[in-house]
Task: structure prediction
Amino acid sequence: MNTRPLVSFTSALLLLSGVSATASAQYGAPYGAPQGGSYDIQVGGQVGGPYGAPYGGYGYAPPQKKSQPKSTPLEVGYLYATSVAYGMGTGVWIDALAGIEDPGVQFIAPAVLGVAAPVGVYFLDKPPMPRGMPSAIATGMVIGAGEGLGIASYQYVTARKGKEWGFLGLATSEVIGSTVGGAAGWAFYELFRPRPQTNMFLASGAVWGTLIGSEFGAAASSGGWSEANDSISLGGLIGFNVATAGAVGLSIAWTPSWNQLAWMWGGLGIGTVVSLPIYFAYIGSDHDPRRGLIAQGAAGALGIVAGALFLGRPDPSADVALTEPEDRGRPPFARVLGGGLVPYQGGMGACVLGELW
Result:
């Protein structure tokens, strides 16, 4: 009897087992396979059959996610302060909505909500919130409240007499704006994982836009204050929204350092002061000196740009693109986690495991 084919077949099996053990040791055991370099295949309760294995092949362990840095006490304090203002403001709005005028009752809702809001932040911060989340929510609330204030102010100065919203309309705009803004700030964090510097940049941009827009609006006005306030309010509201939208778009690709933020504020102040001599040119002139605000607004805007590009010192650690998966704390759009060969009755197949974001 010739035993050479049997010997050859046994040698081939040993060779395949060695390759399997080597590959498994090098790349890791597949999902569902025991550690140690190889695994058995069962058919009808017997070990070693060639068919019927639920899974096979080689895989690799998914990469470990980088942990997000925790927020600092200063950043959480920013959210605490904003939540107190939000709670008390909401309580005042409830009083106005209900028409409560009794001083003994007026302060109940603001006091209760002024305490309840920071208590909610306390539990939200257990475990500690990641870096950027508290300031993103707080900044969204501040910007939303500013939007509500701008809309209510413009309505007040442009409405016919007796058609103004009044205090209730102002309070309603503030509550709606801050609530929507806080939700938008949370969504902004979930999408882009901004750093605290980015959130401060957005809040600063809203203020810069309001100031410069108001200057342009005043420069375009004419007549007395009762006529000029319409243009000033409209200019401030437009500047607020344009600057905020621009800051959001810019923040997706660029993160300023704290030093750059400080110098951007400084540049605004320097530009405003340096442009003051423009009013000397109006002495003895028939031109309206309010037009000088155009020069001041433009100089302030240029000062902000100069502070960011030339005066401020960038922080390399803050200039990381916000689209990097490690910085955003989540996997990329698609990721392969493992896979391999799948034996089945009458042949072989392949299986790939992964996830889509």
Notes: The longest strand covers residues 334-344.
